[in-house]
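Weekly puzzle thread! Below is a chain. First person to post its structure in token form gets bragging rights.
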Amino acid sequence: MQRSLWVRLLVLVIAIGSLFTRVLPAYAAGDAYVTRYLRVTEPIPLALDEQGNTRLFAAEELSAGKQLFERNCLNCHVGGATLPDPTVSLALATLQGATPRRDNVSSLVAYFRQPMTYDGTEETFLCRQVPESWLSQAQVESLAGFVLRAAQTAPGWGGAIFQDE
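Winning reply:
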């Protein structure tokens, strides 16, 4: 009888443990960089367009954007710098100074879909074009959200470490 009680207790502990292994990954879906340096634990509003509309981005979406950035952009944009052209970083002031401005989700998505030079006069080949066949609209919006939030809050993002001062 005592052995049966221990077996039941062990089964209960295993069942509870398996419950936590299923629940915790959902809770921890946000990347540690996103929660710590971008300070996102709850959905946050980011500028959607030039008319002042916003869109909420959850930590999970920004984490997905960070992963897309790491897979597709990190070779040229280490820490928000732009290695092929160090004078044009992903710092918020630089994004705001572009023509057209690139400091909202829609304008960054438009840039990803058809990259233009900083002054907006011609196409650029320094940044890869991102067609919908490569990244869906939701994915490219997550990428844009990550870049914008990093430009707003990440320490050193787009800093002048690669520029002559």
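Puzzle host: Confirmed. Bonus trivia for everyone else. Residues 9-13, 18-28 have pLDDT under 50 and may be disordered.
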